[in-house]
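S1.2 Input.
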Amino acid sequence: MLGQRRWLVAYFCFIVALDLAAIVWFWTSTVFQWKDALTFGALMGCGAVCIEATRRLGMPAGVSRDLLSAWWLPVALLLPPVYALFAPIVLQVLLQLRVRATMLYRRVFSSAAIGLAGCTASVTFHGFVEHPWELSRGSGPPILIAVASAVIFSLLNIGLIAIAAHMANPDAAWREVLWDRESMLLDIVELCLGVTVSIACGINLGLLIFTLPPVVLLQRSLLHAQLQAAARTDAKTGLLNAAAWQREADTEIGRARSTGDSLALLIIDIDHFKRVNDAHGHLVGDQVLVGVASMLRSQLREYDVVGRFGGEEFAVLLPGADTDEARRVAERLRVRIARMAIPVEDTLVRVTISTGVALMGVHGDDLIDLLAAADLALYRAKELGRDRVCIPAVQPPRALPNDPSTP
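S1.3 Output.
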């Protein structure tokens, strides 16, 4: 953790300290009851079952979404705020021990962020609803307040984590660390599940037996979809892996061939990447790869096809791009990446890129020809001193001996 940016480390420490202070404050001001402890234990038991289902299905690195909010939200809505602070600690420990061990400070920060969000939602709900079990009556006002509290929980949790993600990579656009259409849909599903489980639990604690199977099934379906996406994704950078990129590129090239649209292909290589690994270690090299990948995503259009082609090479397909636009995009990427800096202890690591460009209809009509032409241009860029963009020259076709135009 201490190898991260100083402001990021300070932010981590502040959030964790705030969470600990909230635990102490609400612990000393809460009157504990056996009914609340039983409800908390039942909800955590349901969360543990979901985690075991996750463990059996498997959760590789890069798969991060789950439906555990279906159990965190009822804790926040039905129980005193101190339980909302403890709930993520219990489930994060289970995730760390039973599913996948990750960097401990990330688990601690996630627990603190979720705990603070849940505590805020709990204080909000209990401030307007005198008795939390009023949810079981089905009247409108308590349910609306529960929905509003759930929205507060989601917004605060996402906001705290998004700030940390943006501090870790300031060059990334905010839209990359906040919502996209899919994540927003998942947040809405989690909100609905949490409120529904809260109402069922308020009616009768035994109804958790009937809410658990649908939540487990939904979580397994979600993980299955994420595993399919992970099979197409490079684990380090989050870009398409080489095989998935080639499939996507073949599809785009076939479409461009049938419609007659222009298309460009870029091969990007990080200059002297081995020196970075040798001087600072492979972990820093991985941070450089992640930074370059993030910059590529932020500077390209949504329908551009970008992937990690292997090692320190990236491939980009630009549908509809002609020579001028391809060169302009490649130059913009070169300049932006050259300005990027990766903090390492007391210094900053900077890299440059060399890029080879190939154009459909000029340098070839299929993926193999375009890759070969772009690769030759990339080697030419390196021969000329690196940190530049090259487009291969097109040799005019030689006239045949019986060609009347031959002089």
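S1.4 Remarks. The longest helix spans residues 140-168.
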